[in-house]
Amino acid sequence: MPHKILTLAASNNAHSINRALVEHAAQVLKSEFLQDAEIDTLDINDFEMPIYRADREQNDGIPEAAQAFYDRITAADALMIFFPEHNGTYSAAYKNLFDWASRIKMAIYQDKPAVFLAASPGGRGAAKVLEFAVTTAPFFWAKVVGSMSVGKFGEAFDKDTGMLSGSEHADALNAALSALAHTLQGQDSLAAA
Fold first, then answer.
1. What is the gyration radius of the CA atoms in the chain, in angstroms?
2. How far, in Å, CA of 144 to CA of 79, rounded?
3. 167-186: b or e for each residue (b if 16 or more CB lie within 10 Å)?
4. Residue 45: CATH number of its domain
5. 13 with 121: CB under 8 angstroms?
């Protein structure tokens, strides 16, 4: 049975470099590691909702968009999330979506294996938000099996080919995706035993 991989860029920018990285990583995952994978690419712009407030939740309940986001995670076997860095942390759009979803259940990521990636035009490669996401992941029930950041994205990513251009970044991406594939294959073996 094919594995369903939920991918998303935690950015509401239609031209986000993290969206470009999503497409590239999904292509590499399918061509190199999980040929039968079903890729479900989520656009967080489809899940816009009011800013979270406790009294809003009390008066109006959980927005349907938050439940739909949570349900997409439920339907997936694994996650690939790509984080832009906004003032050292998540984008406001993703943080709001995340906050609402956490009101459904704190275990937002539902014990799914995950790869967390980040990219930025600067040299640090959104390392701060990536570190934050990886460090806090266990509190929200994500099993991060691989992570990587890409700095100086304009130099590291070839827009014409839609691929990472340097072997260092390509190797790091392959290692993260290989770890995800091995985790899923290991789960398959345990389920078959």
1. 16
2. 9
3. eebeebbbebbbbbbebbee
4. 3.40.50.360
5. no
Within a 10 A sphere around the Cβ of 156, how many other Cβ atoms? Answer: 19
Q: 35: buried, middle or exposed (CB in 10 Å: 19+, 13-18, 0-12)?
A: exposed
Q: What is the pLDDT of residue 193?
A: 65
Can you tell me which residue has the tokens 């996650």?
Answer: 79
Domain count, the chain: 1
Compute the half-sphere exposure of residue 192: CA atoms within 13 Å on the CB side of its CA: 7
pLDDT digits (tens, 9 = 90+) for 61-117: 999 999 999 999 999 999 999 999 999 899 999 999 999 999 999 999 999 999 999
Distance of alpha carbon 21 from alpha carbon 142, whole angstroms: 21
Q: Phi/psi class of residue 80: alpha, beta or left (left: φ > 0; alpha: ψ in -120 to 50)? A: beta
Cβ atoms within 10 Å, residue 139: 12
pLDDT in tens, 133-171: 999 999 999 999 999 999 999 999 998 999 998 889 999
